[in-house]
Design brief:
Length: 227
Protein backbone atom coordinates (compact mmCIF):
# COMPACT_ATOMS: atom_id res chain seq x y z
CA UNK A 1 0.00 0.00 0.00
CA UNK A 2 1.30 3.42 -0.88
CA UNK A 3 2.06 5.68 2.03
CA UNK A 4 0.89 8.73 0.08
CA UNK A 5 -2.84 8.02 0.27
CA UNK A 6 -4.81 9.09 3.36
CA UNK A 7 -5.64 6.37 5.87
CA UNK A 8 -8.13 6.17 8.69
CA UNK A 9 -8.20 3.71 11.53
CA UNK A 10 -9.48 0.40 10.19
CA UNK A 11 -9.96 1.71 6.65
CA UNK A 12 -10.52 -1.11 4.17
CA UNK A 13 -10.43 -3.73 6.93
CA UNK A 14 -14.09 -3.91 7.88
CA UNK A 15 -13.39 -2.05 11.13
CA UNK A 16 -15.46 0.99 11.94
CA UNK A 17 -13.68 4.19 12.92
CA UNK A 18 -14.31 4.82 16.67
CA UNK A 19 -15.19 8.47 16.04
CA UNK A 20 -18.21 7.34 14.00
CA UNK A 21 -19.82 6.16 17.22
CA UNK A 22 -20.06 9.68 18.60
CA UNK A 23 -23.25 10.28 16.66
CA UNK A 24 -24.52 6.70 16.67
CA UNK A 25 -27.57 5.72 18.71
CA UNK A 26 -26.94 3.54 21.78
CA UNK A 27 -28.54 0.55 20.12
CA UNK A 28 -26.34 0.83 17.03
CA UNK A 29 -23.09 1.40 18.89
CA UNK A 30 -21.25 -1.94 19.31
CA UNK A 31 -19.10 -0.32 22.00
CA UNK A 32 -22.16 0.48 24.12
CA UNK A 33 -21.81 -1.00 27.59
CA UNK A 34 -18.06 -1.54 27.23
CA UNK A 35 -16.21 0.63 29.78
CA UNK A 36 -12.90 0.69 27.93
CA UNK A 37 -12.18 3.40 25.36
CA UNK A 38 -9.30 1.39 23.91
CA UNK A 39 -9.47 -0.64 20.71
CA UNK A 40 -6.72 -2.99 19.49
CA UNK A 41 -6.65 -3.87 15.80
CA UNK A 42 -4.55 -6.60 14.19
CA UNK A 43 -4.03 -5.23 10.69
CA UNK A 44 -1.95 -8.11 9.35
CA UNK A 45 -1.85 -9.49 6.71
CA UNK A 46 -3.93 -6.73 5.07
CA UNK A 47 -1.57 -3.99 6.19
CA UNK A 48 1.99 -3.98 7.50
CA UNK A 49 2.09 -1.22 10.10
CA UNK A 50 5.46 0.30 9.19
CA UNK A 51 6.79 3.43 10.88
CA UNK A 52 5.72 5.51 7.88
CA UNK A 53 2.17 4.15 7.79
CA UNK A 54 1.83 4.50 11.54
CA UNK A 55 2.91 8.14 11.36
CA UNK A 56 0.36 8.70 8.58
CA UNK A 57 -2.39 7.14 10.67
CA UNK A 58 -1.49 9.50 13.51
CA UNK A 59 -1.73 12.51 11.21
CA UNK A 60 -5.05 11.38 9.74
CA UNK A 61 -6.61 10.66 13.15
CA UNK A 62 -5.51 13.55 15.41
CA UNK A 63 -8.51 13.04 17.72
CA UNK A 64 -7.16 9.62 18.73
CA UNK A 65 -4.07 8.62 20.68
CA UNK A 66 -2.45 5.78 18.75
CA UNK A 67 0.18 3.23 19.73
CA UNK A 68 1.76 0.23 18.01
CA UNK A 69 2.47 -2.95 19.93
CA UNK A 70 5.61 -5.04 19.49
CA UNK A 71 3.47 -7.48 17.45
CA UNK A 72 2.47 -4.74 15.01
CA UNK A 73 -1.06 -4.26 16.35
CA UNK A 74 -2.63 -0.81 16.26
CA UNK A 75 -4.01 0.46 19.58
CA UNK A 76 -6.48 3.37 19.37
CA UNK A 77 -7.41 5.29 22.51
CA UNK A 78 -10.09 7.94 22.75
CA UNK A 79 -9.38 11.21 24.62
CA UNK A 80 -9.55 10.88 28.40
CA UNK A 81 -12.11 12.63 30.58
CA UNK A 82 -11.62 16.09 32.03
CA UNK A 83 -10.70 14.83 35.51
CA UNK A 84 -7.96 12.52 34.18
CA UNK A 85 -6.64 15.38 32.05
CA UNK A 86 -6.49 17.67 35.08
CA UNK A 87 -4.59 15.07 37.09
CA UNK A 88 -2.17 14.35 34.27
CA UNK A 89 -1.41 18.03 33.71
CA UNK A 90 -0.57 18.42 37.40
CA UNK A 91 1.96 15.60 37.22
CA UNK A 92 3.46 16.66 33.88
CA UNK A 93 3.81 20.26 35.05
CA UNK A 94 5.72 19.18 38.14
CA UNK A 95 8.09 17.07 36.05
CA UNK A 96 8.59 19.95 33.60
CA UNK A 97 9.27 22.44 36.40
CA UNK A 98 11.82 20.18 38.07
CA UNK A 99 13.60 19.59 34.76
CA UNK A 100 13.58 23.31 33.99
CA UNK A 101 15.37 23.97 37.25
CA UNK A 102 17.89 21.12 37.01
CA UNK A 103 18.47 21.04 33.22
CA UNK A 104 19.31 17.34 33.53
CA UNK A 105 17.33 16.13 30.56
CA UNK A 106 14.20 16.53 28.47
CA UNK A 107 10.61 16.13 29.70
CA UNK A 108 7.65 15.05 27.56
CA UNK A 109 3.88 15.06 27.84
CA UNK A 110 1.36 12.47 26.64
CA UNK A 111 1.53 13.57 23.00
CA UNK A 112 5.07 12.19 22.50
CA UNK A 113 5.69 8.79 20.95
CA UNK A 114 8.80 6.64 21.44
CA UNK A 115 9.98 3.80 19.21
CA UNK A 116 11.06 1.12 21.67
CA UNK A 117 13.79 -1.45 20.87
CA UNK A 118 11.17 -4.24 20.69
CA UNK A 119 9.38 -2.51 17.79
CA UNK A 120 6.52 -0.99 19.78
CA UNK A 121 5.68 2.72 19.61
CA UNK A 122 4.39 3.90 22.97
CA UNK A 123 3.12 7.19 24.38
CA UNK A 124 3.36 7.33 28.17
CA UNK A 125 1.38 10.03 29.97
CA UNK A 126 4.66 11.68 30.95
CA UNK A 127 8.29 10.81 30.30
CA UNK A 128 11.83 12.01 30.80
CA UNK A 129 15.11 11.31 29.01
CA UNK A 130 18.57 12.11 30.39
CA UNK A 131 20.35 14.89 28.53
CA UNK A 132 23.28 12.76 27.35
CA UNK A 133 20.94 10.18 25.76
CA UNK A 134 18.85 12.87 24.07
CA UNK A 135 21.93 14.61 22.69
CA UNK A 136 23.04 11.37 21.04
CA UNK A 137 19.99 11.49 18.75
CA UNK A 138 20.16 13.19 15.38
CA UNK A 139 17.84 16.13 14.61
CA UNK A 140 15.84 13.84 12.31
CA UNK A 141 15.40 11.24 15.06
CA UNK A 142 14.20 13.93 17.46
CA UNK A 143 11.59 15.18 14.96
CA UNK A 144 10.05 11.71 14.64
CA UNK A 145 9.35 9.06 17.28
CA UNK A 146 12.61 9.04 19.22
CA UNK A 147 14.17 5.56 18.83
CA UNK A 148 14.68 4.79 22.51
CA UNK A 149 12.82 4.08 25.72
CA UNK A 150 12.64 6.99 28.17
CA UNK A 151 14.60 6.74 31.42
CA UNK A 152 11.42 7.59 33.34
CA UNK A 153 7.82 6.89 32.36
CA UNK A 154 4.54 7.69 34.05
CA UNK A 155 1.14 6.19 33.32
CA UNK A 156 -2.00 7.60 34.94
CA UNK A 157 -4.91 5.21 34.95
CA UNK A 158 -8.16 6.71 33.71
CA UNK A 159 -11.55 5.12 34.53
CA UNK A 160 -11.61 3.49 31.08
CA UNK A 161 -8.14 1.91 31.37
CA UNK A 162 -7.58 -1.76 32.11
CA UNK A 163 -5.17 -2.07 35.05
CA UNK A 164 -3.58 -5.32 33.85
CA UNK A 165 -2.87 -3.77 30.43
CA UNK A 166 -1.17 -0.77 32.04
CA UNK A 167 0.87 -3.03 34.31
CA UNK A 168 2.03 -4.95 31.22
CA UNK A 169 3.06 -1.65 29.61
CA UNK A 170 5.15 -0.70 32.63
CA UNK A 171 6.91 -4.07 32.45
CA UNK A 172 7.50 -3.48 28.75
CA UNK A 173 9.12 -0.12 29.50
CA UNK A 174 11.49 -1.76 31.98
CA UNK A 175 12.39 -4.54 29.54
CA UNK A 176 13.25 -1.90 26.94
CA UNK A 177 15.46 0.27 29.11
CA UNK A 178 13.45 2.42 31.51
CA UNK A 179 15.04 2.91 34.91
CA UNK A 180 11.93 4.10 36.73
CA UNK A 181 8.22 3.76 36.08
CA UNK A 182 5.19 5.03 37.99
CA UNK A 183 1.69 3.68 37.48
CA UNK A 184 -0.76 5.91 39.35
CA UNK A 185 -4.33 4.69 39.90
CA UNK A 186 -6.61 7.46 41.23
CA UNK A 187 -9.55 5.06 41.58
CA UNK A 188 -7.84 2.75 44.10
CA UNK A 189 -5.49 5.54 45.25
CA UNK A 190 -2.54 3.23 44.73
CA UNK A 191 0.83 3.80 43.10
CA UNK A 192 2.89 1.02 41.52
CA UNK A 193 6.62 1.77 41.35
CA UNK A 194 8.73 -0.13 38.81
CA UNK A 195 12.52 -0.38 38.94
CA UNK A 196 14.79 -2.81 37.04
CA UNK A 197 15.58 -5.98 38.94
CA UNK A 198 13.26 -5.15 41.83
CA UNK A 199 9.76 -6.29 42.80
CA UNK A 200 6.97 -3.87 42.02
CA UNK A 201 6.41 -1.59 44.98
CA UNK A 202 2.77 -0.84 45.82
CA UNK A 203 2.07 2.33 47.81
CA UNK A 204 -1.29 3.22 49.36
CA UNK A 205 -2.30 6.84 48.78
CA UNK A 206 1.17 8.39 49.14
CA UNK A 207 1.20 12.16 49.46
CA UNK A 208 4.55 12.39 47.69
CA UNK A 209 6.72 10.29 45.39
CA UNK A 210 10.50 10.60 45.19
CA UNK A 211 12.28 10.06 41.89
CA UNK A 212 15.82 9.46 43.19
CA UNK A 213 18.23 8.39 41.86
CA UNK A 214 16.87 8.53 38.28
CA UNK A 215 15.30 11.96 38.85
CA UNK A 216 17.63 13.49 41.45
CA UNK A 217 15.72 15.66 43.90
CA UNK A 218 12.37 15.29 42.14
CA UNK A 219 9.45 14.92 44.54
CA UNK A 220 5.99 14.66 42.99
CA UNK A 221 3.09 16.06 45.01
CA UNK A 222 0.17 13.62 44.59
CA UNK A 223 -2.30 15.45 46.78
CA UNK A 224 -3.71 17.14 43.66
CA UNK A 225 -4.35 13.70 42.16
CA UNK A 226 -6.16 12.31 45.20
CA UNK A 227 -8.34 15.35 45.88
Amino acid sequence: MSTSSPLAVGEGLGVRDPKDYNSASPSSNPLNGIPKAVISLNLRPSLELTDEIFEQLCRQNPELRLERTAKGELVAMAPVGSESSRQNLSLSAQLWQWNRQTQLGVAFDASAGFALPNGAIRSPDAAWIAKERWQQLTPEQRRRFAPLCPDFVLELRSPSDDLAALQAKLQEYLENGSQLGWLIDPESQRVYVYRPGQPVQVLERPAYLEGDPVLPGFVADLTLVWE
